[in-house]
What we know:
The complex is a heterodimer.
Chain A: H1 2-13, E1 30-36, E2 40-41, E3 47-55, E4 63-72, E5 91-98, E6 108-110, E7 114-117, H2 128-133, E8 135-145, E9 148-158, E10 170-175, E11 178-179, E12 189-194, E13 199-203, E14 209-213, E15 217-222, E16 226-227, E17 231-233, E18 238-242, E19 249-256, E20 262-269
Parallel strand pairs in A: 2-9
Antiparallel strand pairs in A: 1-3, 3-6, 3-7, 4-5, 4-8, 8-9, 10-11, 10-12, 12-18, 13-14, 15-17, 15-19, 16-18, 19-20
Chain B: H1 2-12, E1 18-27, E2 38-42, E3 46-49, E4 55-62, E5 64-70, E6 78-84, E7 87-94, E8 118-121, H2 122-125, H3 136-139, E9 146-148, E10 155-157, E11 165-169, E12 172-173, E13 178-179, E14 184-185, E15 192-198, E16 212-218, E17 227-233, E18 236-244, E19 249-258, H4 260-269, E20 274-292, E21 297-314, E22 326-344, E23 349-366, E24 369-389, E25 392-412, E26 416-417, E27 420-421, E28 429-449, E29 457-460, E30 463-468, E31 473-478, E32 481-487, E33 490-500, H5 505-508, E34 521-532, E35 540-559, E36 563-583, E37 586-601, E38 605-608, E39 615-625, E40 628-637, E41 641-642, E42 645-651, E43 656-661, E44 667-668, E45 672-684, E46 689-697, E47 705-710, E48 717-721, E49 726-734
Parallel strand pairs in B: 1-7, 11-16
Antiparallel strand pairs in B: 1-4, 2-3, 2-5, 5-6, 8-15, 9-10, 11-12, 13-14, 15-16, 17-18, 17-49, 18-19, 19-20, 20-21, 21-22, 22-23, 23-24, 24-25, 25-28, 26-27, 28-30, 29-32, 30-31, 32-33, 33-34, 34-35, 35-36, 36-37, 37-38, 37-39, 39-40, 40-45, 41-44, 42-43, 45-46, 46-49, 47-48
Amino acid sequence: MRVIYLIFLILMVSCGGDDFKKIEKLGEFRILAVLADTPEVAAPGASANLRLFVSDVKAAGRVITGTTVACIDPGIALGAKVSCDHDPSALTSTYTVDTTSMASALYTGAMPNKNFTVPNNIFTGRSPRAQFNGIAYIVIFNFTVDGESISAFKRITVTNRGGLNNNPTGSAILLNGGAIAAFPKENDELKVTTSTSETFNYQTIDGNIESRTEKMKVAWYLNEGELAGPKTDVGEGSKYLGPNISKPSLLIAVVRDERGGVDIVIKSFP
Amino acid sequence: MAWTILFFTFLSAFAEDQVAIKGKILEKGSRKPLTDVSLYILPQKIKAISDKQGRFSFENVLAGDCELIINLTGYNKYENKIACSTIENLEIYLEKKFYTSFETTVTSKVIKRDDQAQSLTQEEFIKAPGSFGGDPVRASQNLPGVAATSGSAQVVVQGSSPDDTGYLINGHRVPLVFHFGGLSSVIIPEAVERVDLLPSGYGPEYSRAIGGIIGLTTKSPKEERIHGMAYVDLLNVGGLVEGPLDEKSSVFVAGRYSYIGEVLKKVSESNEDFEVTSAPVYYDLTSIYKRKLNDKNELKTTFIFSKDELKFFLNKPINNDPALRGKLKNETQFFRIIPQLKTQLSAQHALDNSLALGKDSIDLNISGQFLQVESNVISQRSELASNWSPTYKTYLGLDNQWTNTSTKINLPTSYSVGGVATPFSVGEERKFETKGNQTQLGAYLRQEIKTNEDSAWTYLPNIRVDHFTLNKETQFQPRPQLRYQWDPSLLLRGAWGKYVQAPRPQESSKEYGNSELRSPYAYHYMVGHTKDFRQGANQGLEFTNNYFYKELKDLVISDVAKRYSNEGTGTILGAELQAKYRQDEWSSQVVYTYLKSRRRRPGQGETPSEFDQTHNLNLIGAYNIPRWTFAGRFRLVTGVPYTPITGATYDSDNDVYIPRIGEIYSERFDAFKQFDIRIDRKFIYDTWILTAYLEVQNVLNAKNSQRVEYSFDYKAREFQRGLPILPTFGVKGEF
């Protein structure tokens, strides 16, 4: 209950973090998403291909070698540290980000796939409800860039529910309701069109099976300017606050289905 | 008054030689009848004495010029030349020298039953500087051992969590004591007779709070005549009416409404990040009914209702949590009806019975996720006080509470360590509905034993037992106390005791928490003394000094495997002193607390707690002259600790950064400094009083850091300051 007063207090008295870098603004090396070809797998022993979607606008192309470590989720949703220290069978390997060959001057895009196999014992000792709703196998990507540690992780969800989740499809970015042809101008409204939300079954804590529908969310990124709504629902507009620019620029919508499914719509403008 | 005199002068021309003068003597402004006042008519030296209603009568007064003289201690001398003639209804308004208290706060011994209690009376808290217009609970933060949480006014008693402090009204637990989490108490200050703080070593009458107790006692309505009051200030508007209904009963009705929401709504209009969809509102109602049933029985019934409502729309998510956007709403309300029956069974025995019937409700909605709680509450207290002999007294009591709760919840689990919580977006969903009953039973025996009437020692082998149906625990809690009256001015005291509280409902819920939790408990140890150097006078120095130590066991902490566990422990060590000095128009206080509040949890060793404020100094002063009071408070407090965040890992599925924490509570904010002033001016009219006050908080505009705000990826941070200089102004009219 106090959280809402705290949020309100922060909003009323804070400077709003005006000096902070905006969440939607691209610049330094940043991982925008980790994509899996199959966000859910049906059984222990199955595998999925993961790849990073990164942005490194300011670096103008470079090679960064990092590591991956994969293990059964230690319980991040319950407060556990994002780490594989608990799991002696965690698998470590290297992962290379190479933006040198990118055609765009903006150095933003997807990296190659890397395959990860979920261990056979992932269901051991887990409740039927946990197996139904899914147990996560996590893959953590670690890099040291310009002296700073940067890490991200992705869950590969293993479930016996049937009807596996598919990645959503982001088809187009719309500008004021029409196809986008140029970088937005001040007060223009951006939207993204996607595939329809999937329905899925979820077992509640009291054992009931509920049919639910995904809620699709969009995270917006750009290399210039500012957005009023850097996070929106699909179908909800995000207003571009300016300024009007004419140099090469980039606009990205990362669509998430809140179940690990991700797709990216990217538009670059000369 | 002048017209009255002229009129009587005119009449006197036709008067007979001997006349009678009858009238009433009242206190100017309050219209309080003044009893046993000697009135003189000169030069004839005729005396009259006022009765209970302030009525007086002079008989056989020689007609003609005379002078009426009244010289009453505490009042301005009354001298008035009148033409003596037959007068049936002369009204005299006698003006008090001081309408304001000498002191801003006092650790008075209002409740002398418990030596550990520190109390503020209404007269004291209502003019306390820095209390947002006389709020009793905020004023209690001027007492030794009491501090406020960083960024709000939640009460921290001797380094304990505010959740470990029990808030009572007339001895019965209420779910919250502040509107909007710390703005103002849920009860209008004028309805409160006194606020009592029971810190370490408190007696067996209360329980279920391992930190301490803050108790508010409602006043008895005035019985002699109708009174009214209305006030307006920058936060609230309110008013009350009280007075007799008949010879045996009286009533008090008060209400208060805050329009701070309208101000906040205006402020939010200039902020693109969020909008207040409906103005935040809080209001409360209080009524008190008192009836003397017969010579032995007296009934007092208090009704309290409080409601807070806050709704706003976040256009942009909070920096560190994209889930927190869209509609946010919080409505909380509760009411209590508290009938209390006091029965004098005999000269030696008195019985107090009371009930509290009420309902609590919470409706929280955060971007579609919600918590809805409805609770019906009945609590009951009984106490038989027996004065068996001059050397032996007992207080035998029951303290029970029954709660029927219905909960609908759809919220993620929350995990917090070192004050850093995992983002809302990451938590595992918990969606369920539940209904249940919870009973807390308590019984206690307080004994006061002296070996003989003249003994300086008093032994108090107190005991309490509590049973919680929530976790089926029964806890015996010895709470012995010891008192030594060295001489009339020096009291030495000591106490030791066990204190237990049930886990909070969300912690012990089988769906959301851990139903296996045990009850956290604490051992308190304290010694102290009070020396009164005033030697019976009301001016001079009083000095109080206490040392305390608390061992905290089975504290509930977040636990990854079990959601919550009893793996937390802690210690709190401290010393507090209070020196009060009063001389003529001046009064002053020095209140200082030293404490170390430490916690332990598995794998993290001993760390400071978030309530660890090593030094807490309050300097309070007041200058009181007729019609004016100038009061000030300066606070210097060690900055509270916080846990640094050393980095973050991006959660690609939830689009949020999960912070990595450094050493728990290893950094501190700069020392907190604040100087507050308050000026009261009274305008006294014959039948009413107008009071205007100006309160300026943080006069020096000190930039006190109270929170750390982080960028979305935790790579940058900035300190969020507390309130800047904040003047508030209010006026109050009363009759």
